Amino acid sequence: MASRTALRRRFGPATTVLVAYAAVVTGGTALLVLPIAKAGPGRSDVLDALFTAISAVSVTGLTTVDTPRQWNGFGQTVILVLVQAGGLGIMTLASLIGLAVARRLTLGSKLSTSVEAQGVGIADIRRFVTGAIRISLGIEAVGALLLGTWFWLTGDFSPGDAAWFGVFHSVMAFNNAGFVILPRGLVPFVGDPVVSGVIAALVLIGSLGFPVLDELRRHWRTPRRWTVNTRLVLWGSVVLTAVGTVFIVVVEWGRAGTLGPLDWPTKLLAGFFQAVQTRSGGFNTVDVGALDGATLLVMDVLMFIGGGPAGTAGGIKLTTFGVLFFVLVAEMRARSSVNVFGKRLPAGVDRTAITISLVSVAVVVGSTVALTVITDQPVGRMAFEAISAFATVGLSTGVTPDLPPAAQALLLVLMFAGRLGPILLASALAVRSRPLTYEFPTERPIIG
Amino acid sequence: MASRTALRRRFGPATTVLVAYAAVVTGGTALLVLPIAKAGPGRSDVLDALFTAISAVSVTGLTTVDTPRQWNGFGQTVILVLVQAGGLGIMTLASLIGLAVARRLTLGSKLSTSVEAQGVGIADIRRFVTGAIRISLGIEAVGALLLGTWFWLTGDFSPGDAAWFGVFHSVMAFNNAGFVILPRGLVPFVGDPVVSGVIAALVLIGSLGFPVLDELRRHWRTPRRWTVNTRLVLWGSVVLTAVGTVFIVVVEWGRAGTLGPLDWPTKLLAGFFQAVQTRSGGFNTVDVGALDGATLLVMDVLMFIGGGPAGTAGGIKLTTFGVLFFVLVAEMRARSSVNVFGKRLPAGVDRTAITISLVSVAVVVGSTVALTVITDQPVGRMAFEAISAFATVGLSTGVTPDLPPAAQALLLVLMFAGRLGPILLASALAVRSRPLTYEFPTERPIIG
Ligand SMILES: [K+]
Ligand SMILES: [K+]
Description:
- 2 copies of one chain form a homodimer.
- Helix content of chain A is 65%, strand content 1%.
- With 448 residues, the first copy, chain A, is mainly alpha-helical.
- In chain A, helix 2 packs parallel to helix 15 and helix 12 packs across helix 13.
- Chain A starts with a helix and ends in a 17-residue tail after the last helix.
- Bound molecules: potassium ion (2 copies).
């Protein structure tokens, strides 16, 4: 059935999404190369503008230039709009695809109980878009108010600068895009509980994803009604943040370039802040390039897993990792079905999780190999930059601005692929009809 | 049913295997610390002797000392016996467990067709042991004859030395244990097609595993009768060796410390030889420590995947990786069953593969983090040593002799765990009965 309609049904949505993102990136790049976007004289390099636009639309925050020195107020506004568009776009898009997947699966497996078995219509799109905008703007407004007021009260900033810094960083934090326009970055705020706390809270909330936020808003008083998706994301966030905090604090405790010079409450705050950023905010209050190689490796793993689905977080997602983890638990306990928080995982979801994970591992390893060959940098640092880009985190050991154009171009592709790849792949896998095939006899190879 | 019989049935075989291996390691260590085992005056350090014994029994070849300088003829004979015992032990043990698993599964799923549904008896054990001994000694004899004659004809060795070098390295190569007792190692033979070719061939053949070797011996003329296990291992070996060879030759082509100074046929031979060693021989004709970081990372992946099951190769095994890969292929092609070479994988085998892989990733990452923290070495090198130990490969960037005792102890545990862990875990997962549990309602989280 390779009719035009069938083809459009198969490739249509993905193509639309790719074209829409490419258009936004092109528009953003065009604005950013204009001289009116650049701080100081002249205009920006096209690769720098393109890199910034893709980094913003993919809500990453990785940069080839120093944001406040390169971009003036107009340029920063372009970044702000691109980030907001990218964040809302993914929240809406992924939620719609998730709904379509759920309905298609419900319809297919004839398990229709609570969800009505019907297609995704205009009403759904409107509901998701307005819901995402309302949640985003509401939380961002609270964050902007807190940050702006605090910057005004405690910093040497004019009221206008303080307000702009508050708005900009609140939007960046909620959308998990690690752009910073403070003149000396966030490092001076390593011991500031308000700046660190508000930004960490915004990043954590944003990384949960729209379905979780929507459910928490509607059912926050009745946790027993929460879906498996929400429970996996919340528990995953808690566990990964705790593991990351403990590890960073312990390993970096006495290290001269990072937590060493700080007093112990600041060490704890900085460790917590940095652990949160792997899910996938991308801000830093310590020098990432000075962290121990072991810390970078642990952060690699946390970034690769990422945050909640259908949100601004990247990585393979806490749910994908959770499915693999609970398959392991079920195997260890000799259970024939995989149970997660009182629900059984449907057949096939573990295969989708395997596929997403294997493809992501292949992309990350392949990119790391390529970056190492291109740059001759240590493989540990190239792995960190590759995972940071692919998982749209935006943390950097500081080498990205000095990388050759080929390496920067690869990171740029990784950000774009990391933002759209998993969601498009997972939805493509989930919604297809599976043709009945001739059944071969079973045979088991030896495992392990 | 926690009766003593049930407990023995559950934990019995694993405990027996662990005790047997521990006994062999203890005996080997006791012999190696004797002054009569050491070249030159004095006696060896206990940690060095223990490390050598575990490295030999686990057929790894990782060393904390220079083998020919540390051990005299008696010490080298102890290593030879430990390697042969370790290699035969795993071949027999894993094959028996594999047979038990196959019969148990056949019995349980009532699919008994060709295999008789009965337990594993004395006759099976005798058949496997004699089969493994016959295959091992036969191939080792051919290898020893070729290598010994060539050493005698072309080297400056006495006939006795040439014969001993031939026997020792043939046994090492077939058992995938990378110990070398040639005075200047294998690097001088980088361009020698006979030494490189025979050792590579022995390593490749040994890495296939006993079930594949046994099947090839009986059915080598009728490939259509080969099992999925054999096809996965053969294809996996071909693909991984090809990928490794191409990558090493291309990346190292002009590198001064490795392939740079060699003429092009020698570059190809050396690249092929080094690629073969990741599956998991552990010999080297180029300086592993001088390889590009990207090459080490690619070798990490190849070593982690490893060779065939129920043999002397380590890693998660080509079959485990093959199952994950074909799950991905089935997902991409929207198939509801996972078909591999004309057979369908039974339900549950993908979950076992997930479990083995996740546990192995966790062990490798955890060990790399620990080694990096302990030693302050670059994370890339520590990952290589950790994977080399866990996958019982034995390749080294050269840092192992200089590592602190805590790091050496960790590598020692990794070799032991890597040798016995996957097989015991996989067999434990496969043979247990799965209790019928209350079935929860299904619910699907969002993946990707
Ligand atoms: K980010
Ligand atoms: K080995």
